[in-house]
């Protein structure tokens, strides 16, 4: 049974705020932050954008790329840590907006930054078992960082949708295998009703990100009997530019392999869309036969690793919707005051 | 804002620009009509999903927003002529200084408004400049 990506679509809001502008407000050293984080600016949603509207835009681009009949979709799963409703699924809004309703199932996923890839795995299971024809998995976020917190420099907005299927004639990228590594690690959380997440500072690094990414990636390489040099590209969850670069080096992947998918310096951490955004950016420029290794990470904590091989079909769909680099170009830069307004940090009476 | 059932009944039109078309005379309707205004009882109405592309017929810049829209002001409210013919009123998202009559637009999915912090969030179609 071959399961794979039939189509994909990404969306990034137009607005950006630069690290210098945030650092100016809090009296931080912008140069030190940029060098440390390897992030220079981050995406900011418009006043009328949220995780649901971003998920819809990404899903519509995925549908435009595939050209398939939306009524064939049997499941829509949206992963996010910023679902607009606490109770009322984002996925029903997306499914209605792409015309996939009503003969289908839907649910929302939550696993910090890897809720999107968890949705991909769920769709792979349903598609692979023959329970559904096509499944749509989405990661979308308008992530929040408390004013003055370190997270504010990277918490960004974006979304990626992946349409998964099993018809070989339709598959643009075969997923040869997936592997997850999960433990109870309190490196990052947000309590019910609280506007901003809390995190363990440096504790998020070694026991959180690196332990899970390295073990998840190694687990999949062992399972498939592949080595880093077997892959043309690699993508790792990108909360900043430094972590994925270091993880790649620890595992034996080169800078050349990770460069096409490393989008965090220009848009920040898009949370549930982060690893998927790297995969989308890589698929945008991949050639038939190319192999992509990807590992997503979610605090709490866990990782999902994927091994992907691109098929001839990719060239047919690549340019039917905007590429990630097209979505990232022509940003509109805003100051902190406008950023605060866009993010709802200013409350009107 | 509007009541929940009232909004829900129009979900198809709000989300996906679903309207109708008369097979008899070829006229398009948005919002959807059940009876053709030209052909009356000989008209044959069928569902039609608009492409969403069109142009600005006229527009105004709203500074003093209605209740529920305060956070979006200033915003552009325009009459848009869809390529199939019907006109509708919608926000056009983008730099107000760049708006002009005749500007080509395309649809986007956005938050239209919400009933405070406790109520429903209303989603639907707005427009952006076609080259945005």
What does this structure look like?
The complex is a heterodimer of chains A (349) and B (132). With 349 residues, chain A is of the alpha/beta class. Chain A folds into two domains: 4-171 and 316-342, Thiolase/Chalcone synthase (Peroxisomal Thiolase, Chain A, domain 1), CATH 3.40.47.10; 174-314, Peroxisomal Thiolase, Chain A, domain 1. Chain A has helices at residues 19-26, 30-37, 51-66, 90-97, 115-128, 205-224, 242-251, 255-258, 264-267, 274-285, 314-317, 324-328, 336-342, and strands spanning 4-11, 15-18, 41-44, 73-79, 105-109, 134-142, 157-165, 173-185, 188-189, 198-199, 233-236, 291-298, 300-310, 332-333. In chain A, 57% of the residues are buried. With 132 residues, chain B is mainly β. The longest helix of chain B is centred in the N-terminal third of the chain and has 6 residues, at 4-9. Chains A and B meet through helix 3 and helix 4 of A and helix 2, strand 7 and strand 8 of B.
Summarize the structure.
The complex is a heterodimer of chains A (349) and B (132). Chain A is built from 13 helices and 14 strands. By secondary structure, chain A is an alpha/beta fold.
Query: Termini separation of chain A (Å)?
Result: 57 Å
- Point out poorly predicted stretches of chain B: none
How much of the sequence of chain B is in beta strands? 35-45%
Largest sheet of chain A: 9 strands, mixed
> In terms of quaternary structure, what is this?
heterodimer
CATH class of the largest domain in chain A: Alpha Beta
CATH homologous superfamily annotation of the largest domain in chain A: Thiolase/Chalcone synthase
Helix content of chain B: under 10%
Please state roughly what percent of the residues of chain A sit in beta strands, choosing from under 5%, 5-15%, 15-25%, 25-35%, 35-45% or over 45%. Answer: 25-35%
Number of strands of chain A: 14
Strand line-up across the major sheet of chain A: 5-4-6-7-1-8-13-12-11
Tally of discrete structural domains of chain A: 2
Order of helices and strands of chain B: HHEEEEEEEE
- Give me the CATH architecture of the domain at 52-132 in chain B, please: Beta Barrel
SS content category of chain B:
mainly beta
pLDDT average of chain B, as an integer?
Answer: 94
Shape of chain A: globular
Low-confidence parts of chain A: none
As for the CATH topology of the domain at 52-132 in chain B, it is OB fold (Dihydrolipoamide Acetyltransferase, E2P)
Question: Biggest interface and its residues per chain?
Answer: A-B, 20 and 16 residues
Domain ChsH2 rubredoxin-like zinc ribbon (chain B): 12-40
Pfam family, one (chain B): OB_ChsH2_C
Domain ChsH2 C-terminal OB-fold (chain B): 50-110
Protein name (chain B): Zn-ribbon domain-containing OB-fold protein
